Amino acid sequence: MGGSSPLPLSLQSKFQRARAGPLARLRDYRTNLNILRNIIFALFLLRTFRKSFYFLRGHGILGSLSLLYHSTHKKLYHIFLNLPGVRSKVAAQLTAARLDLENKLAPTGPGINRYLHLPKEPWTKEQLSAELESLSAMKRTRWEEGKVSGAVYHGEDSLLDIQFNAMRLFSVANPIHADVFPAVRKMEAEVVAMVLALFNAPDTGAGVTTSGGTESILMACLSARQKGYAERRITEPEMIVPHTAHAAFHKAASYFKIKLHVVHCPAPDYEVDISRVRKLINPNTILLVGSAPNYPHGVVDPIPSLSKLAVAHKIPLHVDCCLGSFLMPCLAKAGFPSPFAEEGGFDFKQPGVTSISVDTHKYGFAPKGNSCVLYRDRQLREYQYFIAPEWSGGVYGSPSIAGSRPGALIAGCWASMMAVGEKGYIDATHKIVSTKLTIENAIKEHPILKATLGVLGKPSVSVIAFESLDPAVSVYDIADGMSRRGWHLNSLQDPPGVHAAVTLPMTRSGAVDGLIDDLVATVKEEKEKVISEEVTGSGVVGGAVVKEQKKKGNSAQLYGVAGSLPDKSIVEQMVVAYLDTLYKA
Ligand SMILES: *Cc1c(COP(=O)(O)O)cnc(C)c1O
Questions:
Q1: Would you say the CB of residue 296 lies under 6 angstroms from ligand 1?
Q2: Each residue of 147-199: pLDDT tens digit?
Q3: 305 C-alpha to ligand 1 centroid (Å)
Q4: Are residues 432 and 416 both part of a single domain?
Q5: Which atom of ligand 1 lies nearest, measured to the CA of 294?
Q6: Is 448 found in the same domain as 406?
Q7: Based on the structure, what is the number of domains in the chain?
Q8: CA spacing 20 to 30 A to 190: which of 17, 55, 316, 494?
Q9: E-strand spans in 342-485?
Q10: 512, pLDDT greater than 70
Q11: Residue 461, exposed/middle/buried by CB under 10 A (0-12, 13-18, 19+)?
C-alpha cells in the first residue's frame, strides 16, 4: 500500500509510526486467537478421541458395529412407519387399541356412577359407606386366593388391623414438622436403624425412608451423581446397570441426565457379565449397580465381583434389594443357601457396596408407600439432601423428593416391623421360598411342563421365571391362558418369559397346587391348539390354504406383535394410551 499511497513520505512514516502499535497489537491478537483456536480444536479432537476410545473399549468393535446396525435399522423403520399409507394404518390401529383399553380398564355405561364434580351437598355417612362398599366389590383379580404375582405381600387381617390402628393414631402426622410430630420422627429413625442392622451396615451407616423402591433408587443415583460432581468434577455422569436391573434406574438416568450403559446378562445364568461392566468403566462412571435379586428372573447378580470392581476403581456400588427386601437377610436363618455366603455375601459386608435400596413395603410387609435407601456413611446420604437456604418461605431442607410426607405410613411401617419381628420374617421367608421351590420343581420335573417350559436362571429367593422351549408355543399365550384361569402373572421380554413372584397369599393351602394344575392345563391347551392348527392349516379349500386367525390375548398382542418391532415408538404410544386411560374418570 506504501507505493500507491497519495500521502507525502514524511507524513506516511509518521502515520505508520502512529499506527504501528495498534496494528502490531491486532496482529498479536490474531496470532493469539489462532493459537487459542488451535488449542480448542485440539481439545475437541482429544475429547472426541477419548469418547470414541471409551466407546470402542466399552462395546468392542463387533459390539459397536452391532449398535450402529441396530440404530440404523431403527431409524429406517421409523421412516417406514411414517410413510403416508403406513402412517394412517398405524394410527387407525392405535385408536382401536386405545378404545379397547378404555373399555377394559375404564368402562362406562348404565350401572356405573361417575362423579366428575364435587357433590353440592356433603354425602351422609350411609351414602358414603354404601358407595365405598360397592367400589370395593368391583370385579377384580382375587389376590386373597393367592392368584396374583407380587402386589400383595402379606394381606392377613391380623397385620392389617395393626397397621390401620397405627395409621389412625398418626393420620395427621407429617415428619416435615419434626417438632410437631416427635413420635413419627422417632419411628422413622428406628425403621432406618433396624433395616441398617439387617443389612450389616457399619457404625457409620446412614439412611432415609422414601415413598417406595423407585424413590430409593432415584436417591441412590442422585447421591452418586452429586458425589461424582463434588469430588471428581464429573459433568457428564454415566452409570452401568445390568440389563435385568429395574426400570427405576432408567427413570433416574432420564430425570438426572445420567448416561446409562445397559450390560448384557447372558443365558443361562442371566447374571450381569462382569467383564463387560469392567470394559465400560471410564472416568465419567459415577455408579455401578447389581440386583439382589432382579425383578425379571429373581437372580442375584455377582455382588462380590462388582464390589471388587467398585473398590479397584473407587466407584460407588448400589445393590438393589428392593424386591429381596427382608427375605434376603433371612435366607440362611430360614434354612436356604444365602447367595455368596462364602464370598462375603451381598450387603454392606462387601467393602465396595456403598448403598442398598430395601422395600419395606414388599417383603417388609409394611403398607404401600414405604421403602428405605441405606448408605455406607453419612456423607453419601448428604449428597441426596436438598437445601434451599434463601427461600422466601424460610430456610428449607428436605431429605428426599417429597416435601410433606405421610407420617401415618411411617407409623404403619414401624408397627408392621415390630409386630412381625425377626421370627415372623424368618417364618415368612421359609414359606415363600419353599413355595417358589415347589413351582420350580414342578416346571423341572412334571412331564408336561418340563417338555415345554424352562426355568430362567437360578432363582434364589421368591421369583420364578420361565420361558417356552417349544418354538410353536408362545410363552405369552401361556400368560394369557393363565389370565383366563384367574391368574395374574407377569410377562417379561428379551428373552420372552413369564414370572411369578411368590408372596404370602400364594403360600396358603391349595394356592400353589392350583397354580401348577392350571399351568399344566394351559400348556396342554396351547399344545393342542398347535396340533389343530397344523391339521386345519393343511386342509386345502378351493386351492387355498386356510389358516385360522388366532385371537390373541393382551400379553401376546403387546409382546408378540408390537414387541418384535425394531422401533419402539408404537409400544410407547400404546403405553401413553394406557397411562391416559388410568386418568379417564
Ligand atoms: C419393585 C422393585 C423396585 C422398586 O419398585 P417400586 O414399585 O417403586 O417400589 C426396584 N427394584 C426391584 C428389583 C423391584 O422388584
A1: no
A2: 888 888 998 889 999 999 999 999 988 888 888 889 999 999 999 999 999 99
A3: 23
A4: no
A5: 13
A6: no
A7: 3
A8: 316
A9: 353-358, 371-375, 386-388, 396-398, 453-455, 463-468
A10: yes
A11: buried
